[in-house]
UniProtKB/TrEMBL annotation:
This is GST N-terminal domain-containing protein. It comes from the Eukaryota. Residues 10-83 form the GST N-terminal domain. It holds the Pfam family GST_N_3. InterPro entries: DUF7962, Glutathione-S-Trfase_C_sf, Glutathione_S-Trfase_N, Thioredoxin-like_sf. Residues 117-239 form the DUF7962 domain. It comes from Orbilia ellipsospora.
Length: 343
């Protein structure tokens, strides 16, 4: 069975800006999927049903393969759903454009803009007064504390410091990729992956009432960015209506996943790959795989199936069978727990 015939389930919640990346990507490429809506804090029993300990959102399954991290999810969708008349490409095509697309991805996700936006949420927001949410996010981020347990940034300086980072990102887009008045980042007729990479953090934070102080970040100060956000919103909202996904509950999602074929071949462990060599990893070893930036305490435990320069794949025991969990090498690491895994 080829990937386009396999069920896709997206585990997410509406308020997650990272999950929006996947919703937009799927919709812009007309890839059908079901969604399993999640609470915005732990626990997530629907995810636990699959045997998955990873705590972040989004998670996407294609058949019986489960993919962690929005970047790996997008690159897998690119690979398993190559451009066709029904699934048009939204990816950059030239070398320069590919560089812009990829650098925007790193810039928004890894350079601190996402973290800065996340910590710019106004204290007046109801969710910011919810002790359960605050406790959950302290565990998620590991607490932005310096040595001695004291916050690095003084409380009153925290939002201004973080908003400065967000403003820098907005100003960069205004004065670079959008400076010549083009409608979309790569000068294409419609929004592309490069637009998704550039917009997700800014659009999220800009639509939260009171998050961005108007005297520093506004449509008046950054007219091109705001007009582009409006254009983008119109297109993706229309697409979302057109492709309204089916909602499944955790049991239904698990049933679909455990009952499906695998989307990919099992793969092999490259014992010569840098981390494979350093840890002496072999196929079948018991391992844990986990992110190294946020949500680091939630480790996938299972049998190592595949390892290469791009990803690690672990066979995990779920409630009703096994799934193959894929994590990217970037931003994740692996630890050996046993020569042979017993599942
Ligand atoms: N690099 C990850 C980041 C994922 C992430 O930080 N997701 C946020 C939601 S936007 C999250 O999981 N927050 C904690 C939670 O919901 O448990 C990715 O690309 O998927």
């Amino acid at each position: 069975m080829s990937a386009p015939d396999l069920p896709i389930v997206l585990y997410h919640y509406v308020f997650s800006p990272v999950a929006r990346r996947i919703v937009w990507y799927l919709n812009l490429r007309n890839i059908p999927y079901s969604q399993c809506m999640q609470p915005n804090i732990l626990p997530r029993p629907d995810v636990a049903l699959l045997g998955i300990a990873y705590r972040r959102i989004p998670i996407l399954s294609i058949g019986r393969d489960v993919y962690l991290d929005s970047r790996l999810i997008i690159s897998k969708l690119e690979q398993l759903y190559p451009p066709s008349a029904s699934h048009p490409s939204i990816s950059a095509s030239t070398g320069d454009q590919k560089a812009i697309e990829r650098l925007l991805e790193f810039f928004m996700m890894d350079s601190g803009i996402f973290r800065a936006a996340g910590t710019s949420l106004p204290p007046t927001l109801p969710i910011m007064k919810n002790p359960a949410f605050l406790k959950d996010r302290a565990e998620f981020s590991g607490g932005a504390l310096g040595s001695g347990g004291k916050p690095i940034i003084e409380k009153a300086a925290r939002r201004p410091t973080n908003i400065t980072e967000v403003r820098d990102a907005v100003a960069l887009l205004e004065s670079s990729v959008l400076a010549d008045g083009r409608e979309w980042v790569l000068g294409t007729p419609g929004p592309m992956l490069a637009d998704i990479e550039a917009i997700w953090v800014i659009k999220w934070i800009a639509t939260i009432p009171g998050a961005l102080p108007e005297e520093f970040i506004s449509a008046k100060l950054f007219p091109r960015v705001y007009a582009w956000m409006e254009r983008f919103t119109k297109v993706v909202n229309a697409k979302e209506k057109e492709h309204a996904p089916e909602k499944v509950n955790g049991e239904q999602a698990a049933e679909r996943i455990f009952g499906a074929a695998f989307a990919e071949a099992e793969g092999t462990v490259d014992e010569g790959e840098i981390i494979g060599k350093a840890l002496g990893l072999k196929k079948g070893d018991g391992v844990t795989v986990f992110p190294i930036d946020t949500g680091v305490n939630h480790k996938e435990t299972g049998r190592l199936l595949s390892l290469n320069s791009k990803e690690m794949v672990v066979e995990v025991q779920g409630k009703k069978g096994i799934v193959r969990v894929h994590a990217p090498r970037h931003g994740f690491t692996i630890s050996k727990i046993a020569e042979k895994a017993s599942l």
